[in-house]
Amino acid sequence: MPLRIAITPGEPAGVGPELLVKLAQHDFDAELIAFADPSLLLQRAADIGLPLELSEVDFAAPAQAHRSGHLKVASISCHSPVEAGSLNVNNAKYVLETLSRATDACKSGDCQGLVTGPVQKSIINDAGIPFSGHTEFLAERCEVDKVVMMLASEQLRVALVTTHLPLSAVPAAITGDNLQRVTEILHASLLRQFGCQNPRILVLGLNPHAGEGGHMGREEIDTIIPCLEQLRQRGWQLEGPLPADTAFTPRHLDKCDAVLAMYHDQGLPVLKYQGFGRAVNITLGLPIVRTSVDHGTALDLAGSGRADSGSFYAALTTAISMAENSSRNHH
Ligand SMILES: NC(=O)C1=CN([C@@H]2O[C@H](COP(=O)(O)OP(=O)(O)OC[C@H]3O[C@@H](n4cnc5c(N)ncnc54)[C@H](O)[C@@H]3O)[C@@H](O)[C@H]2O)C=CC1
Ligand SMILES: NCC(=O)COP(=O)(O)O
C-alpha cells in the first residue's frame, strides 16, 4: 500500500501554496495530504492557471498513490483572507496549526513523513508567538531535546551545530556537550538513513583559520579538538577542525560524507551556491521523517507562478524514499 506524506504549504502569502499546486501536477508513489486551507490552494491554482481537484482525506480508508491534478487535503481554515505577497499577522496561528496537525498525524502513524513549505518566521513572532524555525518547533512537538539541521544536494551535505541563533550567541552554544550530541546524531543518521558505512565527517572550526593556534580564538583548542579526539576513540572518521574558508574544496569534499559547520551562515551559503533550488533540508534525530525546501517564502514571487518548485519536489521525493526505507526497516 502507498505511504501517506503530510505536506504543509507554509506561509499562506508566500510561494508555498503555489509550489504545492505545481507538485500536485506530477504522479507519486505515495498519497500526498495537504494540511492546508482548501480555498487557498484552489485560489492559487487558479492564479497560476493549473488544474487542481481536492478531496478530504479519510485516514480510515486505504491510501492511494497520488495522481496528477488531484490532492488530498486535511482542511484547516485561514483566519483572514490571503493576498499573495502580503503578510497578515492574523494567519500566523493558522500556519502553526497546519504544522501541529501534520506533525501529530506523523506521530500517530496516520502519515509516514512530513514535508514542509517555507514559513515566515518574523510574522509568527510578530503575532506574539516565539518561533525560531520548524526544526526547533518539531523537536519540541516530538518531545526530543536535540535534533540536527542538515541540508543536502546531490553533491554535498552540510549539517549545523547551531541553527537559528544570533551570531553573537553562537560561541557560547559551541559546548563540548552540544558538539558531541550533534555529531552523534549526524553520524547515526549518515550510517542508518543515508547508507554511509563508517561515515566520514569534516568538521569546521569556528574562528578564522580554525583559530590560528589560539591566536584568533580559543574554541577550537578548548572545545572542538578535545571533543573530536574523544569521539575518534570510537573509531569514527572525523576530520578537523578545518579552516572553513578552504574546507569546501574538492580535496576535502571528495573524502567526506558530510560537512559539519558551526553555524547557519558558515555552511549554508556554500550549499546554496552549489545547489540552490535542488537542495533539501532534513531534520535528523526526530522520531518522524521530515524534509523541507532550501528556500524561504519568496514574497516577491508569490502568486506569479514563477517560483521554482525544484527544491519542494526534491524534498518530497526524499521524504518518500526515507519513509519507504524506514517502513522497510520496521517490517
Ligand atoms: N523552510 C523554511 O521555512 C524557510 C523559511 N525562510 C523564511 O523565509 C522568509 C524570507 O527569507 P529570505 O531570506 O528572503 O529567503 P527567500 O528564500 O525567501 O528569498 C531569497 C531570494 O531567493 C528567491 N527565491 C526563493 N525561493 C525561490 C524559488 N522557489 N524560486 C525562485 N526564486 C526563489 C527569492 O525570490 C529571493 O530573491 C524569512 O522569514 C525566512 O525566515 C527562509 C528559509 C527557509
Ligand atoms: N535556513 C534554513 C531555514 O531557515 C529553515 O529552517 P527550518 O524552518 O526548517 O527550521
UniProtKB/TrEMBL annotation:
InterPro entries xrefs: PdxA (IPR037510), PdxA_fam (IPR005255)
Note accompanying the cofactor annotation: Binds 1 divalent metal cation per subunit. Can use ions such as Zn(2+), Mg(2+) or Co(2+).
Main localization, broad class: cytoplasm
Protein name: 4-hydroxythreonine-4-phosphate dehydrogenase
Superkingdom of the organism of origin: Bacteria
Catalysed reactions, semicolon-separated: 4-(phosphooxy)-L-threonine + NAD(+) = 3-amino-2-oxopropyl phosphate + CO2 + NADH
GO molecular function terms noted in the UniProt entry: 4-hydroxythreonine-4-phosphate dehydrogenase activity; cobalt ion binding; magnesium ion binding; NAD binding; zinc ion binding
Enzyme Commission code(s) on record: 1.1.1.262
Binding positions (substrate): H134, T135, K272, N281, R290
Remarks, miscellaneous: The active site is located at the dimer interface.
Subcellular location: Cytoplasm
Pathway: Cofactor biosynthesis; pyridoxine 5'-phosphate biosynthesis; pyridoxine 5'-phosphate from D-erythrose 4-phosphate: step 4/5
Its job: Catalyzes the NAD(P)-dependent oxidation of 4-(phosphooxy)-L-threonine (HTP) into 2-amino-3-oxo-4-(phosphooxy)butyric acid which spontaneously decarboxylates to form 3-amino-2-oxopropyl phosphate (AHAP).
Keyword Flavoprotein among UniProt keywords: no
Enzyme class: oxidoreductase
Cofactor(s) this protein cannot do without: Zn(2+); Mg(2+); Co(2+)
Subunit structure: Homodimer.
One biological process term in Gene Ontology: pyridoxal phosphate biosynthetic process
HAMAP family per record: PdxA (MF_00536)
Positions bound to a divalent metal cation: H164, H209, H264
UniProtKB keywords: Cobalt, Cytoplasm, Magnesium, Metal-binding, NAD, NADP, Oxidoreductase, Pyridoxine biosynthesis, Zinc
Family to which the UniProt record says this protein belongs: Belongs to the PdxA family.
One cellular component (GO) term of this entry: cytoplasm
Pfam family, one: PdxA
